Amino acid sequence: MSDEELESTNVKDSKSYPQEAGTIRKNDYIVIKGRPCKVVETSTSETGECHFAAIDIFTSVKLEDIVLSSHNCDVPRVNCTDYTLLYIFDDGFVSVLTENGTTKDDLKLPTDEALLTQLKAGFEEDKYIVISVMSAMGEEKIIALKEDGTKGGD
């Protein structure tokens, strides 16, 4: 890649960015084994090695890594976006209204039973539902919802 191509690359478009391991703390995000994770525990040894225990934000699998504190780790770009729920399909996906007025039909129903039950109940009761979707490294997951009366304005 030429210098000109590198300069024109938008850094915000990358799925992760480097951060010095010694600056990463509990509740920060980190990439371990190619997966976006939230750090649940961190410690630094006398030899300067950082030990990270983290939970994959999409699969809830616990992952661990050891990195020299002066070396860089990848940190995922994590975003949270709110969408208006339009429809729940029988195939396990939902249709939502995006901020720019288009529909998005590729979001899977949540795997969390309590959230799934609340989402389906609100939809069946014709409530106005806004879902919060976490996205990172090309994956998305419904993480929360808010109900606000019925769609008819009752």
From TrEMBL:
UniProtKB keywords: Hypusine, Protein biosynthesis
Assigned protein family: Belongs to the eIF-5A family.
Sequence ranges assigned to domain Translation initiation factor 5A C-terminal in this UniProt record: 77-146
Post-translational modification comment from the UniProt entry: eIF-5A seems to be the only eukaryotic protein to have a hypusine residue which is a post-translational modification of a lysine by the addition of a butylamino group.
Entry's Gene Ontology molecular function annotations: ribosome binding; RNA binding; translation elongation factor activity
Protein biosynthesis in keyword set: yes
GO biological process: positive regulation of translational elongation; positive regulation of translational termination
Protein name from the UniProt record: Eukaryotic translation initiation factor 5A
Function: Translation factor that promotes translation elongation and termination, particularly upon ribosome stalling at specific amino acid sequence contexts. Binds between the exit (E) and peptidyl (P) site of the ribosome and promotes rescue of stalled ribosome: specifically required for efficient translation of polyproline-containing peptides as well as other motifs that stall the ribosome. Acts as ribosome quality control (RQC) cofactor by joining the RQC complex to facilitate peptidyl transfer during CAT tailing step.
Gene3D superfamilies xref list: 2.30.30.30, Nucleic acid-binding proteins (2.40.50.140)
One Pfam family hit: eIF-5a
